[in-house]
Design a protein that fits this description.
alpha+beta; Rossmann fold; Dna Ligase, domain 1; D-amino Acid Aminotransferase, Chain A, domain 1; 3 domains; five-stranded parallel beta sheet; 16 helices; 22 strands; about 35% helix; binds ligand MV4
Length: about 450
């Protein structure tokens, strides 16, 4: 096992990684920006190194500074968390060449799966269901016309270098195709420095369901079931749950096996997430693979009782997986709410500032992953996540009831949060019956406005 790990991140995930290291008997190094000097990850780590000013490009995103901190402290491995350098193949490569273990998949695998078009092609060849569309990137307008003739409208144009909903454009008919293709290409060029795009059939009102996998360096691969992340707004996930209300044992097994097949085809190692869309008929289609630990990994931990960060670390240290697929038992139901410093009634705009009062819920089946405390100032430079509130119950109903009472106990003052908005979701029959889709939040907000016209001014 490693003696010392550098945590190349901040916020709740940095604390989460430090906790796993402590339980493994591994020393930790925190890196922090000048804006994070008062952060708990600095307090709880064994050593800390300031790596620059607040703006991410001058600290957490700067590979040179992170590597320098690792060298100074004699660190053997780096855990990148999520965001920042977590899915940067060049960074993983630099770690390797400096003889520092990158806790994640190999640079080659990160690179391959970062190209969403190539990833899709590779998965299709491995027998994983994919959405009908172009075989790789679009070479010309004529190429695009030919494809739409086969699959029919509506179609969606996606950036090869995109992902997570960035760089997508829906096209309803032939007349709009040429202009949409040009715009999608130039937007992708500006946003990602790569203007390649691919086309697929557009699926209206899908569910977003993703499968957690673990793969070691000895050829063992298992899946840990799914997470339903359909409750999102503008590709920002708000609520995640496991299991999904629309996935039964048979579908879980099919999606799990498809995920493992795909992971084997690329030589995947470490923890990973295989993302799928499920259409209203219940068909599932591969979307992309996320090569990092995800924010919502907690709901999988709750129902499997497996510490995913410890597993990631042990895999990187060359150990075999502790569990076989047949050892994985799913227990009950878990739900996570992302509590952010955002104004829900004003389009979820982030509001940085000082948290004056902070009281977190507790009791049986309640977990709060947070770096915040009363008096903590949310810096303006980073994402607005204050805390993840996770509940675990024997079934979905108990989890919902537990989430309601936990939200009632959660007190945050000084910055706005969506806690009240979440309370209305857990009272909403559409959510309670589990038959929601990706349009849920927009519809709910429209309904909230219809009931309370005074609020419409704040929103529009
Ligand atoms: C789609 C789609 C409909 N059809 N692809 C958004 C995140 C990215 N990973 C894939 N996304 C979508 N891809 C086809 N062919 C609709 C979405 C989508 C979506 C997916 C999951 C959850 C919320 C979403 C919100 C808008 C669009």
């Amino acid at each position: 096992m490693f003696k010392k790990i550098l945590v190349a991140n901040r916020g709740e995930i940095a604390l989460r990684i430090i906790r796993a290291c402590k339980e493994l008997g591994v020393l930790t190094v925190a890196v922090y920006s000048e804006a994070d000097a008062d952060s708990l990850h600095v307090r709880f780590a064994d050593e800390d190194v300031c790596i620059g000013p607040g703006p991410p490009a001058e600290s957490y995103l700067d590979a040179k500074r992170v590597i320098a901190a690792a060298e100074i402290t004699n660190t053997e491995a780096i855990h990148p968390g999520y965001g920042f350098l977590a899915e940067n193949a060049d960074f993983a490569e630099v770690c390797q060449s400096c003889d520092i273990a990158f806790i994640g998949p190999s640079p080659k695998v990160i690179q391959l799966l970062g190209d969403k078009s190539l990833a899709k092609k590779t998965m299709r060849n491995a027998g994983v269901p994919t959405i009908p569309g172009s075989d790789g990137v679009i070479k010309s307008y004529d190429d695009a016309i030919e494809i739409t003739k086969v699959i029919g409208y509506p179609v969606i144009i996606k950036a090869a270098a995109g992902g997570g909903g960035r760089g997508m454009r829906v096209v309803e008919n032939q007349e709009d195709l040429e202009k949409a293709l040009d715009m999608a290409r130039s937007e992708a060029g500006v946003a990602f420095g790569n203007s390649e795009v691919y086309i697929e059939k557009y699926i209206a009102n899908p569910r977003h369901v993703e499968v957690q996998i673990l793969a070691d360096n000895h050829g063992n691969i298992i899946h840990l079931g799914e997470r339903d992340c359909t409750i999102q707004r503008r590709h920002q996930k708000l609520i995640e749950e496991s299991p999904s209300a629309i996935v039964d044992d048979q579908l879980r097994q099919k999606m799990g096996k498809a995920s493992i097949r795909g992971a084997k085809a690329v030589g995947y190692t470490s923890a990973g997430t295989v993302e799928f869309l499920i259409d209203p008929e219940g068909n599932f289609y591969f979307m992309e693979v996320n090569t990092r630990i995800q924010v919502e990994h907690t709901v999988t931990e709750e129902i499997t009782n497996i510490d995913l960060i410890k597993e990631q670390i042990e895999i990187a240290a060359g150990k075999q997986l502790r569990c076989k697929q047949s050892d994985i038992k799913f227990n009950g139901h878990a739900i996570e709410c992302r509590v952010t410093a955002e104004n829900a009634v004003n389009n979820f705009t982030p509001v940085p500032g000082r948290i004056t009062t902070f009281h977190t819920p507790g009791g049986l089946g309640v977990r709060v992953d947070t770096h915040a405390y009363a008096g903590y100032e949310m810096p303006e430079y980073y994402d607005s996540l204050i805390a993840k509130l996770i509940v675990h119950g024997k079934d979905r109903s108990e989890a919902i009831l537990r989430m309601r009472r936990a939200l009632d106990e959660f007190i945050v003052e000084g910055v706005p949060t969506p806690i009240d908005f979440y309370k209305s979701i857990f009272e909403d029959p559409v959510f309670i019956f589990g038959n929601y889709d990706t349009s849920y939040i927009d519809k709910l907000m429209a309904g909230v406005l219809a009931k309370n016209p005074a609020k419409s001014k704040e929103v529009f």
